[in-house]
Amino acid sequence: MLCLIGKDLNRWVEQCVDMASVDPTLAGLSERDFIAALLFNPPASVQRKMHIWGVKNYQIIFSRAIGLNAAFPHPPSVFDMSESFLRRFHAYADALYDARCKAEEAAAGQGIKFAFEVFASGEYASYLEKSWEE
């Protein structure tokens, strides 16, 4: 499940970087900046939604998902991982997240604040449906 969440988050980060490349107010921001905004400086609406969904520590879930996605862009089979990795996957996921963030320099925009929202699959489908009706 974390690999799939990581895949979605990675797609979101890539889209943010693409948008930043054409928006002068976001110019120069890196993947690392957007990851930091998601984990440490999200809009109040995102924090509320995580609370409503019962996600107490989304920062840990998201950071580990981002870390695992760096090594596993698709969920691996249990046979493709060592027993040691499976027993301590949280430590490996944390280390992979740290490595990904250290792999690039953050832009001067640390602490950036911008509006964004998060959706679960069914919620997003409903949102799209409503927007198409308008």
Could you walk me through the main structural features you see in this protein, from its secondary elements to its overall organization?
By secondary structure, this protein is an all-alpha fold. The chain has helices at residues 2-20, 31-40, 44-52, 58-71, 83-87, 89-102, 121-133. The radius of gyration is 16 Å and the shape is globular. It starts with a helix and ends with a helix. The model has no long low-confidence stretch (mean pLDDT 83).
Summarize this structure as a short list of keywords or feature phrases:
about 130 residues; mainly alpha; 7 helices; globular
How would you summarize what this structure contains?
The protein is an all-alpha fold and 134 residues long. It is built from seven helices and no strands.
Distance between the termini: 34 Å
| Global structural class | mainly alpha
Low-confidence stretches: none
Helix content: 55-70%
- Please state the CA-atom Rg, rounded to the nearest Å: 16 Å
The number of strands is: 0
What percent strand? under 5%
List strands and helices in order, with pairings.
Blueprint: H1 2-20, H2 31-40, H3 44-52, H4 58-71, H5 83-87, H6 89-102, H7 121-133
Helix pairs in contact: 1-4, 2-4, 4-6
